[in-house]
Amino acid sequence: MVLGQLSSSPIASPVSVCTGATVQLDAVARSGSGSYTYTWTSNPVGFTSTISNPVVNPTVKEYQVHQKQ
After folding, report:
1. Alpha helix (H) ranges present in the chain?
2. pLDDT of residue 28
3. Which residues pair with 23 in a beta bridge?
4. I need a surface site. Which of 40, 45, 64, 66 has the fewest CB within 10 A?
């Protein structure tokens, strides 16, 4: 049995937001095998999540969220 390569398509909605507003993140995993795990972290440090669709409330002008694949 040959399995496809694992991939994900992380998105943010809305993609641009004012400080204090919330952003819904979502990651859709495809292929691979078994169950999927999610790890989200932010830059600057302060946000982490292990669910596929966390809500972020940025508190600084620029906020980056990273998903590990």
Report:
1. none
2. 80
3. 56
4. 45
Q: What integer pLDDT is reported at residue 56 of this predicted model?
A: 87
Q: Note the pTM of the prediction, 2 decimals.
A: 0.66
In angstroms, rounded to a whole number, what is the distance separating the alpha carbons of residues 45 and 61? 14
**pLDDT score, position 53:** 92
**Which of 9, 12, 65 shows the shortest CA–CA distance to 39?**
65
CA distances (Å), origin 32, targets 8, 46, 61, 66, 69 = 11, 30, 36, 20, 11
Q: pLDDT value at position 37?
A: 84
Within 8 A by CB and 6+ apart from 28, the residues are: 8, 9, 52
